[in-house]
Amino acid sequence: MRIPDWNPALKAQPQELVDAILARRGGTLINLDKALLWSEPLARAWNIYLGAVRTGLPTSRKLRELGICTVALLTGADYEYRHHAPDFLAAGGGQSELDALQAVIKNDARKATAHPALGAVEQLVIQYAAQMTLDVKVSNEVFAALREHFDNTELVELTSAIATYNMVARFLVALGVSPEE
After folding, report:
1. pTM for the complete prediction?
2. What does the alpha-carbon distance between residue 20 and residue 10 come to, in Å, rounded to a whole number?
3. Are 46 and 36 in contact (CB under 8 A)?
4. Are 68 and 162 within 8 A, CB to CB?
5. What distance in Å separates the CA atoms of residue 64 and residue 143, rounded to the nearest whole number?
6. Cβ atoms of 62 and 86 closer than 8 Å
7. Residue 29: φ, ψ to 5°
8. For residue 114, what pLDDT band results from cuts at 50, 70 and 90?
């Protein structure tokens, strides 16, 4: 990491904040937390917001994680991919779908690319995430196709997950946050 790992000896933070992060993480701070804890307001807001995006949305977790994995691969955020590929699998995705995602990424994921391991909705989510990540602007055709599969709430939640993890990827890559050993 380009900055030192946070620890209480270097910069004290309120124990209730550290405890809240530990509770969300299952008792262990990850390297991302050790970067965020240099800023109390950021760490506090991040813990609440990312907790909601990650586990508080009813929209398909599998599809949200597929969008997040797409962002991670497109931005070179290896840390993000290592954390979210297992979540995609836990949400019902398959390794063949992750392998297919990597193949689609090697081509132009912004364009419709049929892959036998991916369903039509999965391919559309990848295309949407790729356009959001690489172009920011999403084509009318892709958005119209999404509307055929998702209601307004699901569109907002899927978009939010992809946008949020674009932010996370940029934070991780810029600071050189490395995966845990």
Report:
1. 0.95
2. 19
3. yes
4. yes
5. 16
6. no
7. -75, 135
8. confident
